[in-house]
Amino acid sequence: MTPLHIALLIGTYFVVLYVIALLTGKENNNETFFKANKKAPWYVVAFGMIGASLSGVTFISVPGWVATNQFSYMQVVLGYFIGYLIIAYVLLPIYYKYQITSIYGYLKLRFGNYSHKIGAASFLISRILGASFRLYLVALVLQYYLFDAWGVPFEVTVIFSVLLIWIYTFKGGIKTILWTDTLQTLFMLMGLVVIGTTLLDKLDTNLIDFLQSREYDQYGKIFFYDDFNDKKYWVKSILGGAFIAIAMTGLDQDMMQKNLACKNTKEAQWNMLSFAPSLLIINFLFLMLGALLFTFAQKEGIEVPRIDGKSKTDLLFPEIALKGGLGMKAAVVFLLGLIAAAYSSADSALTSLTTSFCIDFLNTEGKAQKNQERLRKKTHIYMSLILILTIISFKYILNENVISNLLKVATYTYGPLLGLFSFGIFTQHKIHDKWVPYIGIIAIIFSYFINEYSTTLFNGFQFGYELLLVNGTLTYLGLYLIKQKNEQ
Hints:
mainly alpha; single chain; about 0% strand
C-alpha cells in the first residue's frame, strides 16, 4: 500500500467524520457541547465507549505487549470488570444525584474550592498525558509508514493529526463524539476480526486449533501466581486493574461525560453493565491477535521495527498489516481500525479537557451565554495546542511500550482523585480544604519513592498497577489528618 493510498484513505475517513459533525453540531451551544442535551441513547453510548476505552494503545500496543508479558494483561482486564461494577452502583448515582456537568463539582460541594481545583487539575494532567500517549502512538505509525516517505517532519504530523480532531469537534462537542465514537468502534472491531482471520488463513490453521497449538502456549499464559514479588502477580494485577478502572473511567471527566449524557441514572448503569463484559472479550481477542502476529513474524522472518536503534514492538502490527503480504483488504481495515481507535479516544479527550477547564477553572456556567461560548471555543484551541506540544515531547523521552507507560503514569496522577472521592463518599468528615493540594502532592511524592525503593524496603517486592491504591490510600490518610477539629 503506497503512501498516496494511505493519505487518500485518511482524507476520506475524516470527510465522513466532518459530515457527522455537521449533522450533529447544528446547535452550537454549551449545553450540546458539554451534555448532548441529556438525550443520548444508552446503547449508543455503550458501543461508542468501547472504542474510547480501547483506543490506539489497545489496537497496537496490547498485541505488541504479548512478546514480553504474554497474556498477563487479562488479569488487569478482569480487574477492570470489577471496577466498572463499582462505577455503575457507587459513582453514577452520586453524579446524577447532584446534576453536575463536571464530576469534580462533587468535590466542591463536599469539601470546598481547593479540593475542587486539585481534583480537576489531577484530571487535566492525567488526561493530557493519556490522550498524548494515544495520539503519539498513531502519529508514530503515520510518520513511519506515510510521512517519512514524503520528508514531512514528525512535528508536522502531530499538528496535522490534532488539527483534524479540532475541526470535527469544535461545534458539536460530546454530541458529535457519541456518534463518531460509534462509527470508530465499528471500524476498530472490523480491523480486529478481518486481520485476525487473515492471519489464521496465512498460518493455515483455525482459531480452535491455534488455541491448542504450541505457538499459542508460548504466549498464552494469563495467570501469574508463582512469585508474589513479581509485578505481574495475579492478585496485584487484578487489584490494580480494578482501581485503574475506577480512577481512569469512574473519576475521569472524559469517560463520565458520555455517561452523564444519558437520560437518567438507570440508563447510564445499563451502559456500564453492557460495556464491562464486552471489554473482557475484546481485550482477549486483541491479545490473541498479538500471539498470531508474533507467530506469523517468526514463520515469515519479519523483524520487529526499530526506531533510533530501539526495538518497537508497538510497530509489529502495522509492519505486518501494511508490509507483511496480507493483502490490500487487510491494509485498508488496519488503517481504518488504527485511525478509528486512536481518534475515538483523542477526540473525546479534547472535548472533556475543554469541558473541565471551562466549568472547573473558568466557571463558565456563571457567565452570560455569549461569553460561555466564546470561552469554550478559545479553550478548545488552547487544549489542542497543549496536546500538540506534549505529543512532540514524547518522541524524545519515551522508551517503553506505550500502554506500559500509560498505566504507569496513571498510578501517580489519578491517586489524589481516588483518595479525595473515597474520603468524600465513605466518610462524613469535613476537612481544612486549603491543605488538600499539599496532601495530593505529598502522596504522589511518597508513592514515587515507595515504588523506587520497594525491592529494598519490602524484601524484593515490586509494585505493579496496585501502586494507584497505595497513592489513593496515602491521600485518604492525609485527608483524615486535616479533618476539622470539632469532629475529633
